[in-house]
Automatic annotation (TrEMBL):
GO terms for cellular component: extracellular space. The chain crosses the membrane at residues 516-537. The keyword Transcription regulation does not apply. This is Leucine-rich repeat transmembrane neuronal protein 2-like isoform X1. PANTHER family: AGAP008170-PA, NEPHROCAN. It comes from the Eukaryota. InterPro entries: Leu-rich_rpt, Leu-rich_rpt_typical-subtyp, LRR_dom_sf, SLRP. SUPFAM superfamilies: L domain-like. Residues 1-34 form the signal peptide. Keywords: Leucine-rich repeat, Membrane, Repeat, Signal, Transmembrane, Transmembrane helix.
Length: 586
């Protein structure tokens, strides 16, 4: 046994690292000692010490391939029992009243039996385990459950039955679990909720029914769980929700209805959910968010509308959302905005995701300009070739930027010199082929960078500085994982496996010669063109002025609301700049 001196050291020493090591050692010693506790050979048993609680015994049997629970060898004082198996080596177990007879595990607080192909629970299996707070039976093969399975679990607060094959649950299945707060039934085969299913679950605050073929939610069952705070029914095949349900659970603060089949929502859909803070509607088939949709959800902080078919957010779609922090409208069909839409959220919004829409950059620039608090912007999958260098002028708090899955071929160095606080940058899956010293220096100051899947060119003029930074700076891990795109000989080779000598000699490559020739030819054409235009222009200057002036006006009229009631058009002006330049230059 562990000496008293050691134990008091564990409790009192302040040197955390030392404490962890020495106390872990003591625990091991105790396991091996076996003077006081018995431990089955296929398990590990640890006694942990903590300031607040008595020494508590934790048994873990995680090797897999078990055919029965070695209950005779388990110490009856165990507080936490974890029986699990690695993916390829599942257990095949049954649960009967093994923890209650002949001597009950009176101290048992948590029981996890996971990935063990348990086919059913058996009646009275947990009878008398008054201290049991958590039962975790995820990843088994339960097909039906009933009230008798859970008799005696008067103090159970968490029941996890996700990843099973449950089809059947009669009325009042959980009636003995009067203290239950968390019930997870996700990833089963539940196709209907029978009336009074959740009777006696008055304290339930978390219910997850996601990934069940439900198609419809019976409002009746929500009468018994009126204190629900978090409800998830992701991918439940729902087309609509009877809004009576929302009247029954007015305290709901998180609702996940993602990946269902909603085609429309009425403007009073969520009118009863006045406390709602998080709403996920991503992956549905919504085509419009109508005016005043969230008018009564004033506390909403997170709203995901990603992966729908939205072409439009109505001008008053976000009315009253003055607490909204995160907005995800990515992967829709949005091609323009009404500026008024964003007026309610200008002071609160910190995250916005525009990725994967049909949005031109100027539409996005106009919105960003009125969102000075924004921290996190998603601009992936927008076919961007380039980003104007004053794009984030009004967003000085930018911390995270995702510009992955675009067609950017030059590192946006100048743009990024203006985003001083940037800490996360994803520029993966673009067409970058090299980084120069300046670029690399900027990247060094960004904690989290993803540069993968670009068109990295592994020849001596393009990759040499990158290799230097790989061996000498904090970018080492980031660069090491990149793969060469060209030349063909090095395609797919990791930078980590390259040496400076192994690189292609750039000046003599065929590709380089060709590009020099092409460049010279272009230059000749350009000079010729310039001379010709100069000659023509000097004669027709006046006429051309009028033509261009008309063109410019036409362009502005494409987006009338951009110009209405706006005084600050700084970045709009720059984005339209090419048009103005033509006018001035001629
Ligand atoms: C259930 O047990 C598995 C395996 O030990 C674990 O990974 C999972 O986090 C547990 N779930 C809960 C809610 O404790
Ligand atoms: C799971 O249960 C079903 C129905 O009882 C049965 O057909 C199937 O063989 C079981 N699977 C395993 C891996 O035990
Ligand atoms: C378990 O529940 C019973 C009855 O409600 C209560 O008397 C007892 O104190 C609870 N035990 C614990 C450890 O909370
Ligand atoms: C916005 O909130 C105010 C105050 O709660 C309320 O009077 C108004 O009706 C709400 N607007 C809408 C469109 O629901
Ligand atoms: C959109 O961007 C935000 C923040 O960058 C991110 O948390 C979220 O997962 C993204 N949404 C999708 C659907 O990728
Ligand atoms: C970009 O689009 C592709 C293809 O639709 C998708 O697989 C990927 O997740 C998207 N990436 C982001 C960051 O939106
Ligand atoms: C990479 O850089 C980090 C931070 O400078 C350093 O701690 C680590 O040792 C480096 N790794 C290699 C393989 O150079």
């Amino acid at each position: 046994m562990c000496s008293v001196g050691y134990i008091s050291f564990c409790r009192n020493t302040r040197k955390i690292v030392l404490k962890v090591w020495i106390c872990a050692y003591i625990m091991l010693m105790m396991t091996c000692d076996g003077a006081d506790i018995s431990c089955p050979s296929e398990c590990t048993c640890l006694t942990t010490f903590s300031q607040e609680e008595e020494n508590s015994l934790r048994v873990e049997c995680m090797r897999g391939d078990m055919k029965s629970i070695p209950v005779d060898f388990l110490d009856h004082k165990a507080e936490i029992v974890i029986i699990s198996a690695p993916l390829g080596r599942p257990n095949y177990l049954t649960i009967g009243p093994i923890f209650t007879q002949p001597t009950p595990f009176v101290n048992l607080r948590e029981l996890h039996i996971v990935n063990s192909n348990v086919p059913s629970i058996g009646q009275y299996s947990f009878w008398g385990l008054q201290n049991l707070r958590l039962v975790n039976l995820t990843h088994n093969n339960l097909t039906s459950i009933g009230a008798d399975n859970f008799r005696g679990l008067i103090n159970l607060t968490e029941l996890h039955l996700d990843f099973n094959n449950i089809e059947q649950m009669p009325s009042e299945t959980f009636r003995h679990l009067t203290a239950l707060k968390i019930l997870n039934l996700a990833h089963n085969q539940i196709s209907a909720l029978v009336p009074r299913l959740f009777r006696m679950l008055a304290k339930l605050f978390f219910l997850d029914l996601s990934y069940n073929p439900l198609t419809d939610l019976n409002p009746e069952v929500f009468k018994d769980i009126q204190h629900l705070r978090i409800f998830k029914c992701r991918r439940c095949l729902l087309r609509r929700v009877n809004t009576q349900i929302y009247h029954l659970v007015p305290h709901l603060d998180e609702l996940d209805l993602g990946e269902n089949q909603f085609k429309y929502l009425t403007s009073d859909e969520f009118i009863s959910l006045k406390k709602l803070k998080k709403l996920k509607l991503d992956g549905n088939q919504l085509s419009v968010i109508v005016d005043n949709m969230f008018g009564r959800n004033r506390e909403l902080r997170t709203l995901s509308l990603a992966r729908n078919r939205l072409a439009l957010l109505a001008p008053a779609a976000l009315t009253n959302l003055t607490s909204l922090v995160h907005l995800d409208i990515s992967h829709n069909k949005i091609d323009r905005f009404h500026l008024q839409t964003f007026a309610p959220v200008v002071d609160s919004l910190k995250t916005i995701n525009f990725s994967g829409n049909n949005l031109p950059l100027n539409e996005i620039a106009i919105v960003l300009q009125i969102l000075p608090e924004i921290h996190d912007v998603g601009l992936a999958n927008l076919s961007l070739i380039d980003i104007p260098l004053n794009f984030f002028t009004y967003n000085e708090h930018l911390i995270a930027l995702d510009i992955s899955w675009n067609k950017i071929s030059t590192f946006p160095y100048k743009l990024l010199t203006k985003t001083k606080f940037l800490q996360r940058l994803d520029i993966s899956r673009n067409r970058l082929h090299t980084l120069n010293e300046q670029d690399l220096q900027r990247l060094e100051a960004i904690a989290n960078v993803d540069l993968s899947r670009n068109h990295w060119r592994c020849d001596q003029c393009s990759a040499d500085i990158m290799l230097v930074y790989m061996t000498t700076t904090v970018l080492n891990v980031t660069i090491r994982q990149l793969k060469c795109h060209s030349p063909l000989r090095l395609h797919g080779v990791y930078f980590g496996d390259l040496t400076l000598d192994g690189l292609e000699l750039c000046s003599t490559t065929h590709e380089a010669q060709m590009s020099v020739i092409a460049g010279l030819m272009l230059l000749c054409v350009a000079i010729l063109a310039a001379v010709t235009t100069a000659l023509c222009c000097s004669r027709r200057r006046a006429a051309q002025y009028y033509t261009n002036e008309e063109k410019r006006r036409g362009h502005e009229h494409e987006h009338p609301e951009e110009l209405l009631g706006r005084t600050d058009l700084g970045s709009v002006a720059t984005i339209h700049a090419p048009v103005h330049l033509v006018t001035k230059g001629s």
